[in-house]
Fold this sequence. Notes:
This protein has helices at 2-17, 22-36, 41-54, 58-71, 76-88, 92-107, 114-127, 131-147, 152-164, 168-181, 186-198, 202-215, 222-234, 237-240, 243-254.
Amino acid sequence: APAALTCVFIALTIDQLQGPQSLERQLKLAEQAAALDPREWLLWMNWSAVLFDKLGKADEALEKMLRAEALAPGIASTNCGLGLMYEQMGDLEKSRAYFRKAIECQENAPWQDMNALMQRANALTWRSTDPETRAEGVALLEKATRLWPDNHRVHAEHAVGLLENKRYDEARAALDRALAISTDYVVSHINLARVNHRQGRPREAIAAFLDAARMCPAERYDSIYGVRFELLTGARASDLGGPIDELQAHLENEIK
């Protein structure tokens, strides 16, 4: 088992580094881990994730995730993965059942880990297209705000869930709570820009977006680029006026 887990963790590291032939190396390590100890649920879950998320091989991914779930039935991650897979395959009944099971696993955990809870909630809120599942994800994020009311990141992530469900006024209120605790979390500013844009406030959106951009000039933020294009294509340049030039110049020159 230790050798199998070593293969798994090396594969996860390779995934983060995204070096040459990353996918091929991850798949080879998954095969090696399975040969070393086929009873290790984590290897099947991660192998499934690579097949599903990176290669789109739903049938193969489902078979491996079901194997992981059979080996460790009480793991929220495997049930959440199965929920996403069955949803993509059009089986909404099974999808909702596995999502509910994932939430139950999270609720019944001996301790509540903030990162794990929010990761689970975000998977339900962002990746699912089912309104019922998305609502359950938001409810889980609301629970996080009750468990950790003084954590700015929790309120910011709650705002994202509300934003993705078009509950814009509530999202703005959640961001106000996040920013009242800390003004240094770039995600809060990014999503304030998104809320302003969705509510037809392009100048305020640009101002919030520039606040975010100035906070991380040396880092790669896919979220920033995503918001950038949303702002540029979702609002007319004539509505934005002067700030659009400042935005473009800042991003092109400082965010590499």
